[in-house]
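Hi there. Long-time user, first ticket. I'm pasting a complex I've been working with (about 619 residues overall). I'd like to know whether the download I got is complete or cut off, because the file seemed smaller than I expected. Thanks.
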Amino acid sequence: MTVSTPAPTRARPGFWRRFSRHRLAVLGALTLVLLAIACFGAAFVAPFPADQQDLLLGPIPPSAQHWLGTDELGRDYLSEILYAGQLSLTLAIAIALISTAIGVFVGAVAGYMGGWIDDVFMRITDLFLIVPAIALLALALQGLGPSPVSIIIVLSLIGWTYIARVVRGQVVSLREREFIDAARVIGATHRQVLTRHILPNLSGVIAVNVALAVAGAIIVESTLSFLGFGVQPPQSSWGNMLSQASGLIGTPKVYLLYFPGLFILITVLAVNFVGDGLRDAMDPRSGTGTPSRRRRT
Amino acid sequence: MLRFAVRRLLYSLPVLLVGSFLLFWAVRTVFDPLLKLRQVRDPELIARETERLGLNDGIFTQYWRWLSGFMSGDWGVSSRTSGSVRPMIGSALTVTLELLVWGVVFATLAAVLIGVWSAVRQYSFSDHALTGLAYVGLALPAFWFGLILIQFLAVWPQQALGWDKPLFFFIGLSSPGQDPTFVDTARHMVLPVLTLTVGLVAVWSRFTRASMLDALSSDYVRTARAKGVPPRRVVVNHALRNAWGPLVTVVALDSALLIGGLLVTEQVFSIPGMGRLFLDSLLAGDVFVLLPWMVITGAAVIILNLVADITYGVLDPRVRVA
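Hi, the file is complete. Here it is re-exported in full:
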Protein backbone atom coordinates (compact mmCIF):
# COMPACT_ATOMS: atom_id res chain seq x y z
CA MET A 1 0.00 0.00 0.00
CA THR A 2 1.34 3.41 -0.83
CA VAL A 3 0.57 6.58 0.96
CA SER A 4 0.80 9.62 -1.22
CA THR A 5 2.61 12.47 0.40
CA PRO A 6 3.55 15.74 -1.23
CA ALA A 7 7.06 15.56 -2.64
CA PRO A 8 9.46 17.33 -0.29
CA THR A 9 10.86 20.46 -1.86
CA ARG A 10 14.49 20.97 -1.00
CA ALA A 11 14.94 24.31 -2.68
CA ARG A 12 14.12 27.31 -0.57
CA PRO A 13 10.83 29.04 -1.19
CA GLY A 14 11.05 31.56 -3.97
CA PHE A 15 13.95 29.78 -5.64
CA TRP A 16 12.49 29.89 -9.14
CA ARG A 17 11.31 33.45 -8.70
CA ARG A 18 14.81 34.55 -7.73
CA PHE A 19 16.44 32.50 -10.47
CA SER A 20 14.12 33.90 -13.14
CA ARG A 21 14.90 37.43 -12.00
CA HIS A 22 18.55 36.82 -12.93
CA ARG A 23 18.12 37.65 -16.62
CA LEU A 24 21.54 36.44 -17.74
CA ALA A 25 21.02 33.11 -15.98
CA VAL A 26 17.73 32.61 -17.81
CA LEU A 27 19.38 33.56 -21.09
CA GLY A 28 22.21 31.12 -20.30
CA ALA A 29 19.78 28.31 -19.50
CA LEU A 30 17.89 28.92 -22.77
CA THR A 31 21.15 28.93 -24.73
CA LEU A 32 22.18 25.64 -23.14
CA VAL A 33 18.84 24.01 -23.93
CA LEU A 34 19.05 25.14 -27.55
CA LEU A 35 22.66 23.96 -27.82
CA ALA A 36 21.82 20.59 -26.32
CA ILE A 37 18.87 20.14 -28.71
CA ALA A 38 21.00 21.17 -31.70
CA CYS A 39 23.90 18.87 -30.76
CA PHE A 40 22.08 15.78 -29.55
CA GLY A 41 19.40 16.17 -32.20
CA ALA A 42 22.04 16.82 -34.86
CA ALA A 43 20.68 13.95 -36.93
CA PHE A 44 17.52 16.03 -37.44
CA VAL A 45 18.79 19.57 -37.02
CA ALA A 46 22.15 19.63 -38.76
CA PRO A 47 21.97 20.93 -42.33
CA PHE A 48 24.13 18.06 -43.65
CA PRO A 49 24.62 14.43 -42.56
CA ALA A 50 27.66 13.56 -40.44
CA ASP A 51 30.91 13.13 -42.37
CA GLN A 52 29.37 13.89 -45.76
CA GLN A 53 32.37 14.81 -47.86
CA ASP A 54 32.47 16.88 -51.00
CA LEU A 55 36.06 16.64 -52.14
CA LEU A 56 35.45 18.67 -55.29
CA LEU A 57 34.11 21.54 -53.21
CA GLY A 58 37.04 21.56 -50.76
CA PRO A 59 37.35 24.24 -48.09
CA ILE A 60 35.14 27.26 -48.72
CA PRO A 61 34.50 30.20 -46.38
CA PRO A 62 31.06 30.72 -44.81
CA SER A 63 28.30 31.10 -47.38
CA ALA A 64 24.50 30.93 -47.61
CA GLN A 65 24.59 27.18 -48.13
CA HIS A 66 27.35 26.37 -45.65
CA TRP A 67 26.83 28.86 -42.82
CA LEU A 68 30.19 28.22 -41.22
CA GLY A 69 31.98 27.13 -44.40
CA THR A 70 33.45 23.70 -45.09
CA ASP A 71 36.67 21.97 -44.07
CA GLU A 72 39.43 20.50 -46.25
CA LEU A 73 37.29 17.49 -47.14
CA GLY A 74 34.33 19.66 -48.08
CA ARG A 75 32.35 18.69 -44.97
CA ASP A 76 29.82 21.23 -43.73
CA TYR A 77 31.51 22.80 -40.70
CA LEU A 78 28.32 23.65 -38.80
CA SER A 79 27.20 20.02 -38.97
CA GLU A 80 30.66 18.88 -37.88
CA ILE A 81 30.53 21.21 -34.88
CA LEU A 82 27.08 20.03 -33.85
CA TYR A 83 28.12 16.38 -34.01
CA ALA A 84 31.37 17.11 -32.14
CA GLY A 85 29.30 18.90 -29.52
CA GLN A 86 27.67 15.60 -28.59
CA LEU A 87 30.97 14.26 -27.32
CA SER A 88 32.11 17.55 -25.76
CA LEU A 89 28.88 18.03 -23.82
CA THR A 90 28.64 14.37 -22.77
CA LEU A 91 32.21 14.39 -21.49
CA ALA A 92 31.70 17.65 -19.62
CA ILE A 93 28.45 16.59 -17.95
CA ALA A 94 29.78 13.15 -17.01
CA ILE A 95 32.97 14.62 -15.55
CA ALA A 96 31.07 17.28 -13.63
CA LEU A 97 28.63 14.79 -12.10
CA ILE A 98 31.21 12.14 -11.21
CA SER A 99 33.80 14.53 -9.78
CA THR A 100 31.14 16.35 -7.77
CA ALA A 101 29.82 13.05 -6.42
CA ILE A 102 33.29 11.95 -5.33
CA GLY A 103 34.08 15.37 -3.90
CA VAL A 104 30.84 15.62 -1.94
CA PHE A 105 31.28 12.12 -0.53
CA VAL A 106 34.90 12.59 0.51
CA GLY A 107 34.39 16.14 1.77
CA ALA A 108 31.30 15.26 3.78
CA VAL A 109 32.85 12.18 5.38
CA ALA A 110 36.13 13.95 6.17
CA GLY A 111 34.43 17.03 7.58
CA TYR A 112 31.91 15.04 9.59
CA MET A 113 34.20 12.39 11.00
CA GLY A 114 37.20 14.64 11.61
CA GLY A 115 40.27 13.08 13.25
CA TRP A 116 42.74 11.06 11.23
CA ILE A 117 40.33 10.56 8.33
CA ASP A 118 40.23 14.32 7.92
CA ASP A 119 44.02 14.60 8.18
CA VAL A 120 44.66 11.97 5.54
CA PHE A 121 42.14 13.61 3.23
CA MET A 122 43.66 17.06 3.64
CA ARG A 123 47.12 15.73 2.83
CA ILE A 124 45.76 14.06 -0.32
CA THR A 125 44.24 17.31 -1.54
CA ASP A 126 47.55 19.05 -0.75
CA LEU A 127 49.20 16.62 -3.11
CA PHE A 128 46.81 17.63 -5.88
CA LEU A 129 47.38 21.32 -5.23
CA ILE A 130 51.12 21.10 -5.59
CA VAL A 131 51.30 19.79 -9.13
CA PRO A 132 49.50 21.83 -11.79
CA ALA A 133 46.39 19.82 -12.64
CA ILE A 134 46.96 20.05 -16.36
CA ALA A 135 50.35 18.35 -15.90
CA LEU A 136 48.81 15.55 -13.82
CA LEU A 137 46.07 15.06 -16.40
CA ALA A 138 48.57 14.85 -19.22
CA LEU A 139 50.61 12.30 -17.31
CA ALA A 140 47.60 10.13 -16.47
CA LEU A 141 46.21 10.25 -20.01
CA GLN A 142 49.60 9.39 -21.44
CA GLY A 143 49.41 6.26 -19.27
CA LEU A 144 45.81 5.29 -19.93
CA GLY A 145 45.51 6.32 -23.56
CA PRO A 146 43.20 9.13 -24.65
CA SER A 147 39.85 7.36 -25.08
CA PRO A 148 36.71 9.25 -24.02
CA VAL A 149 36.21 6.85 -21.11
CA SER A 150 39.72 7.35 -19.76
CA ILE A 151 39.30 11.12 -20.19
CA ILE A 152 36.18 10.95 -18.01
CA ILE A 153 37.93 8.79 -15.42
CA VAL A 154 41.08 10.89 -15.22
CA LEU A 155 39.38 14.29 -15.18
CA SER A 156 36.91 13.10 -12.53
CA LEU A 157 39.60 11.53 -10.35
CA ILE A 158 41.61 14.73 -10.43
CA GLY A 159 38.76 17.24 -10.40
CA TRP A 160 37.07 16.26 -7.13
CA THR A 161 39.44 17.97 -4.72
CA TYR A 162 38.04 21.48 -5.12
CA ILE A 163 34.44 20.61 -4.23
CA ALA A 164 35.71 18.27 -1.52
CA ARG A 165 37.42 21.19 0.22
CA VAL A 166 34.36 23.39 -0.10
CA VAL A 167 32.01 20.70 1.20
CA ARG A 168 34.37 19.82 4.04
CA GLY A 169 34.43 23.43 5.19
CA GLN A 170 30.64 23.62 5.15
CA VAL A 171 30.23 20.32 6.97
CA VAL A 172 32.71 21.26 9.69
CA SER A 173 30.57 24.28 10.56
CA LEU A 174 27.22 22.46 10.13
CA ARG A 175 28.40 19.67 12.42
CA GLU A 176 28.38 21.99 15.41
CA ARG A 177 24.81 23.16 14.89
CA GLU A 178 22.03 22.22 17.31
CA PHE A 179 19.87 20.33 14.82
CA ILE A 180 22.65 17.82 14.28
CA ASP A 181 22.93 17.24 18.03
CA ALA A 182 19.16 16.88 18.15
CA ALA A 183 19.21 14.28 15.37
CA ARG A 184 21.95 12.34 17.15
CA VAL A 185 20.10 12.49 20.44
CA ILE A 186 16.95 10.95 18.99
CA GLY A 187 19.09 8.08 17.75
CA ALA A 188 19.96 8.86 14.13
CA THR A 189 23.03 7.01 12.87
CA HIS A 190 25.98 8.88 11.36
CA ARG A 191 24.85 7.81 7.91
CA GLN A 192 21.35 9.15 8.54
CA VAL A 193 22.68 12.42 9.86
CA LEU A 194 24.88 12.84 6.79
CA THR A 195 22.26 11.95 4.19
CA ARG A 196 19.12 13.37 5.82
CA HIS A 197 20.37 16.41 7.67
CA ILE A 198 23.67 17.56 6.26
CA LEU A 199 23.44 16.85 2.52
CA PRO A 200 20.16 18.77 1.99
CA ASN A 201 21.86 21.82 3.44
CA LEU A 202 24.59 21.54 0.85
CA SER A 203 22.30 21.45 -2.19
CA GLY A 204 23.13 25.03 -3.13
CA VAL A 205 26.89 24.54 -3.02
CA ILE A 206 26.58 21.30 -4.95
CA ALA A 207 24.37 22.75 -7.70
CA VAL A 208 26.70 25.70 -8.23
CA ASN A 209 29.69 23.42 -8.31
CA VAL A 210 28.18 21.14 -10.94
CA ALA A 211 27.72 24.19 -13.18
CA LEU A 212 31.28 25.39 -12.59
CA ALA A 213 32.60 21.88 -13.14
CA VAL A 214 30.85 21.61 -16.51
CA ALA A 215 32.45 24.87 -17.60
CA GLY A 216 35.84 23.78 -16.29
CA ALA A 217 35.63 20.38 -17.96
CA ILE A 218 34.86 21.84 -21.39
CA ILE A 219 37.87 24.13 -21.17
CA VAL A 220 40.19 21.46 -19.77
CA GLU A 221 39.13 18.95 -22.41
CA SER A 222 39.88 21.42 -25.20
CA THR A 223 43.20 22.37 -23.62
CA LEU A 224 44.22 18.73 -23.30
CA SER A 225 43.26 18.19 -26.94
CA PHE A 226 45.49 21.08 -27.94
CA LEU A 227 48.39 19.61 -25.95
CA GLY A 228 47.79 16.28 -27.66
CA PHE A 229 46.21 14.33 -24.80
CA GLY A 230 42.52 14.76 -25.58
CA VAL A 231 39.97 13.04 -27.81
CA GLN A 232 41.72 11.60 -30.86
CA PRO A 233 40.46 11.61 -34.46
CA PRO A 234 38.37 10.11 -36.04
CA GLN A 235 36.25 10.93 -32.99
CA SER A 236 35.78 14.64 -32.77
CA SER A 237 35.12 17.13 -30.01
CA TRP A 238 35.24 20.92 -30.06
CA GLY A 239 38.65 20.71 -28.46
CA ASN A 240 40.21 18.54 -31.10
CA MET A 241 38.53 20.46 -33.94
CA LEU A 242 40.28 23.52 -32.53
CA SER A 243 43.61 21.81 -32.17
CA GLN A 244 43.40 20.50 -35.74
CA ALA A 245 42.69 24.02 -36.96
CA SER A 246 45.49 25.55 -34.90
CA GLY A 247 47.97 25.30 -37.77
CA LEU A 248 45.80 27.33 -40.15
CA ILE A 249 46.80 30.78 -38.90
CA GLY A 250 47.70 33.09 -41.75
CA THR A 251 46.08 30.81 -44.35
CA PRO A 252 42.74 31.55 -46.04
CA LYS A 253 41.26 28.64 -44.04
CA VAL A 254 41.72 30.42 -40.71
CA TYR A 255 37.92 30.67 -40.28
CA LEU A 256 38.04 26.99 -39.26
CA LEU A 257 39.80 28.15 -36.09
CA TYR A 258 37.11 30.62 -35.07
CA PHE A 259 33.90 28.64 -34.86
CA PRO A 260 34.65 25.69 -32.53
CA GLY A 261 36.21 28.21 -30.13
CA LEU A 262 33.11 30.40 -30.30
CA PHE A 263 30.95 27.38 -29.46
CA ILE A 264 33.15 26.63 -26.44
CA LEU A 265 33.06 30.29 -25.40
CA ILE A 266 29.27 30.53 -25.68
CA THR A 267 28.70 27.25 -23.84
CA VAL A 268 31.04 28.13 -20.99
CA LEU A 269 29.59 31.63 -20.69
CA ALA A 270 26.06 30.21 -20.57
CA VAL A 271 27.01 27.62 -17.96
CA ASN A 272 28.71 30.27 -15.82
CA PHE A 273 25.66 32.53 -16.00
CA VAL A 274 23.46 29.63 -14.90
CA GLY A 275 25.90 28.92 -12.07
CA ASP A 276 25.72 32.54 -10.92
CA GLY A 277 21.93 32.49 -11.11
CA LEU A 278 21.82 29.29 -9.06
CA ARG A 279 24.17 30.73 -6.46
CA ASP A 280 22.21 33.94 -6.09
CA ALA A 281 18.89 32.09 -6.00
CA MET A 282 20.09 29.57 -3.40
CA ASP A 283 21.73 32.15 -1.19
CA PRO A 284 20.45 35.66 -1.77
CA ARG A 285 23.06 37.11 0.56
CA SER A 286 25.96 36.10 -1.65
CA GLY A 287 24.82 38.10 -4.68
CA THR A 288 27.89 40.17 -5.39
CA GLY A 289 27.66 40.37 -9.14
CA THR A 290 31.06 38.70 -9.36
CA PRO A 291 31.59 35.94 -11.90
CA SER A 292 32.06 32.58 -10.24
CA ARG A 293 35.66 31.54 -10.45
CA ARG A 294 36.59 28.84 -12.82
CA ARG A 295 38.09 25.86 -11.11
CA ARG A 296 41.84 25.44 -11.02
CA THR A 297 43.23 23.98 -14.17
CA MET B 1 56.86 34.53 12.19
CA LEU B 2 60.07 32.68 11.34
CA ARG B 3 58.97 29.65 13.36
CA PHE B 4 55.66 29.63 11.57
CA ALA B 5 57.38 29.73 8.18
CA VAL B 6 59.85 26.99 9.04
CA ARG B 7 57.12 24.76 10.47
CA ARG B 8 54.99 25.21 7.36
CA LEU B 9 57.91 24.37 5.08
CA LEU B 10 58.82 21.27 7.09
CA TYR B 11 55.19 20.23 7.02
CA SER B 12 55.20 20.40 3.21
CA LEU B 13 58.29 18.25 2.74
CA PRO B 14 56.51 14.89 3.12
CA VAL B 15 53.96 15.96 0.53
CA LEU B 16 56.76 16.72 -1.94
CA LEU B 17 58.46 13.41 -1.17
CA VAL B 18 55.31 11.34 -1.60
CA GLY B 19 54.39 13.30 -4.73
CA SER B 20 57.77 12.78 -6.37
CA PHE B 21 57.76 9.10 -5.46
CA LEU B 22 54.30 8.62 -6.97
CA LEU B 23 55.47 10.40 -10.12
CA PHE B 24 58.54 8.16 -10.30
CA TRP B 25 56.41 5.07 -9.86
CA ALA B 26 53.81 6.24 -12.41
CA VAL B 27 56.35 7.10 -15.10
CA ARG B 28 58.26 3.85 -14.55
CA THR B 29 54.98 1.90 -14.81
CA VAL B 30 53.78 3.66 -17.94
CA PHE B 31 57.06 3.85 -19.85
CA ASP B 32 59.61 1.21 -20.63
CA PRO B 33 63.00 2.93 -20.48
CA LEU B 34 64.47 0.34 -22.83
CA LEU B 35 61.73 0.56 -25.46
CA LYS B 36 64.12 1.65 -28.21
CA LEU B 37 66.64 -1.06 -27.43
CA ARG B 38 64.02 -3.78 -27.51
CA GLN B 39 63.77 -3.31 -31.27
CA VAL B 40 67.36 -4.53 -31.56
CA ARG B 41 66.38 -7.92 -30.09
CA ASP B 42 69.79 -8.40 -28.53
CA PRO B 43 69.12 -9.98 -25.11
CA GLU B 44 72.70 -9.42 -23.99
CA LEU B 45 72.59 -5.71 -24.73
CA ILE B 46 69.28 -5.37 -22.95
CA ALA B 47 70.58 -7.25 -19.92
CA ARG B 48 73.63 -5.00 -19.84
CA GLU B 49 71.59 -1.81 -20.09
CA THR B 50 69.14 -3.05 -17.44
CA GLU B 51 72.10 -3.63 -15.17
CA ARG B 52 73.69 -0.26 -15.99
CA LEU B 53 70.48 1.69 -15.34
CA GLY B 54 69.81 -0.32 -12.20
CA LEU B 55 66.37 -1.42 -13.35
CA ASN B 56 66.66 -4.76 -11.56
CA ASP B 57 66.45 -3.06 -8.19
CA GLY B 58 63.12 -2.46 -6.48
CA ILE B 59 61.26 0.76 -7.16
CA PHE B 60 62.14 2.10 -3.69
CA THR B 61 65.85 1.48 -4.20
CA GLN B 62 65.73 3.20 -7.58
CA TYR B 63 63.85 6.16 -6.12
CA TRP B 64 66.28 6.40 -3.24
CA ARG B 65 69.20 6.39 -5.65
CA TRP B 66 67.65 9.30 -7.55
CA LEU B 67 66.78 11.18 -4.36
CA SER B 68 70.25 10.93 -2.83
CA GLY B 69 71.78 12.03 -6.14
CA PHE B 70 69.32 14.92 -6.37
CA MET B 71 70.12 16.09 -2.86
CA SER B 72 73.86 16.04 -3.51
CA GLY B 73 73.47 18.00 -6.75
CA ASP B 74 73.81 15.12 -9.20
CA TRP B 75 70.54 15.30 -11.11
CA GLY B 76 71.33 12.60 -13.63
CA VAL B 77 71.11 12.49 -17.41
CA SER B 78 68.09 13.00 -19.63
CA SER B 79 67.14 9.90 -21.58
CA ARG B 80 65.64 12.08 -24.32
CA THR B 81 68.57 14.35 -25.11
CA SER B 82 71.38 12.48 -23.30
CA GLY B 83 72.28 15.87 -21.84
CA SER B 84 72.83 16.63 -18.19
CA VAL B 85 69.54 17.48 -16.47
CA ARG B 86 70.66 20.41 -14.35
CA PRO B 87 71.56 22.84 -17.13
CA MET B 88 68.37 21.84 -19.00
CA ILE B 89 66.20 22.74 -16.04
CA GLY B 90 68.30 25.83 -15.40
CA SER B 91 67.85 27.34 -18.84
CA ALA B 92 64.16 26.43 -19.01
CA LEU B 93 63.57 27.97 -15.59
CA THR B 94 65.30 31.23 -16.61
CA VAL B 95 63.04 31.59 -19.64
CA THR B 96 59.92 30.74 -17.66
CA LEU B 97 60.74 33.10 -14.79
CA GLU B 98 61.13 35.97 -17.25
CA LEU B 99 57.68 35.23 -18.67
CA LEU B 100 56.18 34.76 -15.20
CA VAL B 101 57.52 38.02 -13.80
CA TRP B 102 56.24 40.02 -16.77
CA GLY B 103 52.95 38.17 -16.53
CA VAL B 104 52.40 38.83 -12.83
CA VAL B 105 53.44 42.48 -13.11
CA PHE B 106 51.19 43.10 -16.11
CA ALA B 107 48.23 41.19 -14.67
CA THR B 108 48.42 43.00 -11.33
CA LEU B 109 48.67 46.44 -12.93
CA ALA B 110 45.86 45.76 -15.38
CA ALA B 111 43.64 44.20 -12.72
CA VAL B 112 44.10 47.06 -10.25
CA LEU B 113 43.46 49.71 -12.91
CA ILE B 114 40.35 47.94 -14.20
CA GLY B 115 39.07 47.07 -10.74
CA VAL B 116 39.49 50.58 -9.30
CA TRP B 117 38.02 52.17 -12.43
CA SER B 118 34.87 50.03 -12.31
CA ALA B 119 34.47 50.37 -8.55
CA VAL B 120 34.67 54.15 -8.72
CA ARG B 121 32.18 54.17 -11.60
CA GLN B 122 29.94 51.41 -10.29
CA TYR B 123 26.97 50.57 -12.58
CA SER B 124 28.20 52.95 -15.29
CA PHE B 125 28.45 51.83 -18.89
CA SER B 126 32.19 51.17 -18.58
CA ASP B 127 31.64 49.13 -15.41
CA HIS B 128 29.13 46.91 -17.22
CA ALA B 129 31.38 46.58 -20.25
CA LEU B 130 34.34 45.55 -18.09
CA THR B 131 32.15 43.06 -16.21
CA GLY B 132 31.14 41.51 -19.52
CA LEU B 133 34.78 41.31 -20.60
CA ALA B 134 35.67 39.59 -17.32
CA TYR B 135 33.02 36.94 -18.00
CA VAL B 136 34.43 36.41 -21.49
CA GLY B 137 37.99 36.27 -20.16
CA LEU B 138 36.99 33.49 -17.78
CA ALA B 139 35.19 31.50 -20.46
CA LEU B 140 38.03 31.50 -23.02
CA PRO B 141 40.27 28.50 -23.55
CA ALA B 142 43.66 30.22 -23.15
CA PHE B 143 45.30 28.48 -26.10
CA TRP B 144 42.51 29.56 -28.42
CA PHE B 145 42.82 33.13 -27.20
CA GLY B 146 46.56 32.95 -27.95
CA LEU B 147 45.95 31.67 -31.47
CA ILE B 148 43.32 34.36 -32.09
CA LEU B 149 45.77 37.00 -30.85
CA ILE B 150 48.40 35.73 -33.27
CA GLN B 151 45.93 35.90 -36.14
CA PHE B 152 44.52 39.36 -35.37
CA LEU B 153 47.47 41.21 -33.84
CA ALA B 154 50.40 39.70 -35.73
CA VAL B 155 49.59 37.83 -38.92
CA TRP B 156 46.59 39.71 -40.27
CA PRO B 157 48.00 43.25 -39.89
CA GLN B 158 51.25 42.07 -41.43
CA GLN B 159 49.45 40.63 -44.45
CA ALA B 160 47.10 43.60 -44.76
CA LEU B 161 49.82 46.23 -44.51
CA GLY B 162 52.46 44.29 -46.38
CA TRP B 163 55.14 44.53 -43.66
CA ASP B 164 58.06 42.14 -43.90
CA LYS B 165 57.88 41.50 -40.13
CA PRO B 166 54.86 41.37 -37.83
CA LEU B 167 54.49 44.03 -35.14
CA PHE B 168 54.36 41.37 -32.40
CA PHE B 169 56.41 38.22 -32.74
CA PHE B 170 54.91 34.88 -31.81
CA ILE B 171 57.80 32.40 -31.85
CA GLY B 172 60.21 32.23 -28.91
CA LEU B 173 61.24 35.08 -26.65
CA SER B 174 64.00 36.64 -28.74
CA SER B 175 64.96 36.90 -32.38
CA PRO B 176 67.59 34.30 -33.28
CA GLY B 177 71.07 35.55 -34.04
CA GLN B 178 70.57 38.95 -32.45
CA ASP B 179 71.59 40.50 -29.17
CA PRO B 180 68.37 40.80 -27.18
CA THR B 181 67.32 44.44 -27.00
CA PHE B 182 64.47 45.72 -24.87
CA VAL B 183 62.28 46.47 -27.88
CA ASP B 184 62.89 43.05 -29.38
CA THR B 185 62.05 41.29 -26.11
CA ALA B 186 58.95 43.40 -25.62
CA ARG B 187 57.72 42.58 -29.13
CA HIS B 188 58.10 38.90 -28.27
CA MET B 189 56.51 39.21 -24.84
CA VAL B 190 53.25 41.01 -25.62
CA LEU B 191 51.23 38.11 -27.02
CA PRO B 192 52.44 35.36 -24.62
CA VAL B 193 51.88 37.60 -21.60
CA LEU B 194 48.34 38.43 -22.75
CA THR B 195 47.62 34.72 -23.32
CA LEU B 196 49.04 33.72 -19.97
CA THR B 197 47.18 36.36 -17.98
CA VAL B 198 43.77 36.72 -19.62
CA GLY B 199 42.05 34.58 -16.98
CA LEU B 200 43.97 36.14 -14.11
CA VAL B 201 43.20 39.70 -15.15
CA ALA B 202 39.52 38.76 -15.29
CA VAL B 203 39.53 37.25 -11.80
CA TRP B 204 41.80 39.79 -10.11
CA SER B 205 40.00 42.80 -11.55
CA ARG B 206 36.69 41.50 -10.18
CA PHE B 207 38.37 40.92 -6.88
CA THR B 208 39.83 44.42 -6.79
CA ARG B 209 36.44 45.86 -7.73
CA ALA B 210 34.70 43.99 -4.90
CA SER B 211 37.20 44.97 -2.22
CA MET B 212 37.32 48.57 -3.50
CA LEU B 213 33.54 48.76 -3.28
CA ASP B 214 33.77 47.53 0.31
CA ALA B 215 36.39 50.12 1.13
CA LEU B 216 34.58 52.96 -0.65
CA SER B 217 31.41 52.38 1.36
CA SER B 218 33.28 52.34 4.68
CA ASP B 219 33.13 54.93 7.42
CA TYR B 220 36.73 56.07 7.09
CA VAL B 221 36.20 56.92 3.42
CA ARG B 222 33.08 58.90 4.30
CA THR B 223 35.09 60.70 6.99
CA ALA B 224 37.87 61.48 4.53
CA ARG B 225 35.37 62.83 2.00
CA ALA B 226 33.64 64.90 4.69
CA LYS B 227 36.99 66.41 5.65
CA GLY B 228 37.34 67.56 2.06
CA VAL B 229 40.13 65.24 0.91
CA PRO B 230 40.34 65.41 -2.92
CA PRO B 231 38.49 62.48 -4.59
CA ARG B 232 41.62 61.04 -6.22
CA ARG B 233 43.43 61.02 -2.89
CA VAL B 234 40.48 59.29 -1.23
CA VAL B 235 40.53 56.55 -3.84
CA VAL B 236 44.28 55.98 -3.87
CA ASN B 237 45.40 56.73 -0.31
CA HIS B 238 42.36 55.72 1.71
CA ALA B 239 40.39 53.10 -0.20
CA LEU B 240 43.03 51.35 -2.31
CA ARG B 241 45.44 51.06 0.59
CA ASN B 242 42.86 49.10 2.51
CA ALA B 243 41.67 47.06 -0.46
CA TRP B 244 45.25 46.09 -1.20
CA GLY B 245 45.75 43.36 1.45
CA PRO B 246 43.36 40.68 0.22
CA LEU B 247 44.47 41.32 -3.36
CA VAL B 248 48.14 40.64 -2.59
CA THR B 249 47.13 37.30 -1.04
CA VAL B 250 45.14 36.32 -4.10
CA VAL B 251 47.99 37.40 -6.39
CA ALA B 252 50.47 35.20 -4.52
CA LEU B 253 48.12 32.21 -4.44
CA ASP B 254 47.12 32.48 -8.08
CA SER B 255 50.65 33.08 -9.34
CA ALA B 256 51.20 29.43 -8.50
CA LEU B 257 48.44 28.58 -10.97
CA LEU B 258 50.32 30.37 -13.73
CA ILE B 259 52.70 27.43 -13.77
CA GLY B 260 49.88 25.35 -15.25
CA GLY B 261 49.08 28.10 -17.74
CA LEU B 262 52.68 28.06 -18.90
CA LEU B 263 52.20 24.64 -20.45
CA VAL B 264 49.69 26.11 -22.87
CA THR B 265 51.34 29.48 -23.48
CA GLU B 266 54.77 28.02 -24.11
CA GLN B 267 53.30 25.47 -26.49
CA VAL B 268 51.40 28.13 -28.49
CA PHE B 269 54.39 30.46 -28.75
CA SER B 270 57.20 27.86 -28.99
CA ILE B 271 58.91 29.20 -25.88
CA PRO B 272 61.61 26.83 -24.55
CA GLY B 273 60.60 27.10 -20.87
CA MET B 274 59.47 24.74 -18.13
CA GLY B 275 56.08 24.06 -19.72
CA ARG B 276 57.55 22.80 -22.96
CA LEU B 277 60.24 20.90 -21.10
CA PHE B 278 57.49 19.09 -19.19
CA LEU B 279 55.53 18.16 -22.30
CA ASP B 280 58.57 17.00 -24.25
CA SER B 281 59.84 14.97 -21.29
CA LEU B 282 56.42 13.50 -20.62
CA LEU B 283 56.01 12.28 -24.19
CA ALA B 284 59.45 10.67 -23.96
CA GLY B 285 58.90 9.24 -20.47
CA ASP B 286 62.04 11.08 -19.38
CA VAL B 287 61.70 10.49 -15.65
CA PHE B 288 64.94 12.18 -14.57
CA VAL B 289 63.72 15.48 -16.03
CA LEU B 290 60.13 15.10 -14.81
CA LEU B 291 61.16 14.51 -11.18
CA PRO B 292 63.15 17.72 -10.62
CA TRP B 293 60.49 19.54 -12.66
CA MET B 294 57.86 18.46 -10.19
CA VAL B 295 59.99 19.16 -7.14
CA ILE B 296 60.78 22.68 -8.35
CA THR B 297 57.24 23.62 -9.37
CA GLY B 298 55.89 22.01 -6.19
CA ALA B 299 58.34 23.96 -4.05
CA ALA B 300 57.35 27.15 -5.89
CA VAL B 301 53.68 26.54 -5.12
CA ILE B 302 54.44 25.83 -1.46
CA ILE B 303 56.58 28.95 -1.10
CA LEU B 304 54.02 31.17 -2.86
CA ASN B 305 51.31 29.88 -0.52
CA LEU B 306 53.52 30.71 2.43
CA VAL B 307 54.27 34.16 1.03
CA ALA B 308 50.53 34.71 0.63
CA ASP B 309 49.89 33.92 4.30
CA ILE B 310 52.77 36.04 5.54
CA THR B 311 52.02 39.12 3.41
CA TYR B 312 48.42 38.97 4.51
CA GLY B 313 49.61 39.22 8.09
CA VAL B 314 52.05 42.01 7.26
CA LEU B 315 49.42 44.08 5.48
CA ASP B 316 46.65 43.40 7.98
CA PRO B 317 47.97 43.22 11.56
CA ARG B 318 44.64 41.82 12.79
CA VAL B 319 45.25 38.41 11.21
CA ARG B 320 48.96 38.19 11.98
CA VAL B 321 49.97 34.64 12.92
CA ALA B 322 51.68 33.94 16.21
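A couple of notes from our side: Chain B has twelve helices and no strands. The longest helix of chain B spans residues 231-268.
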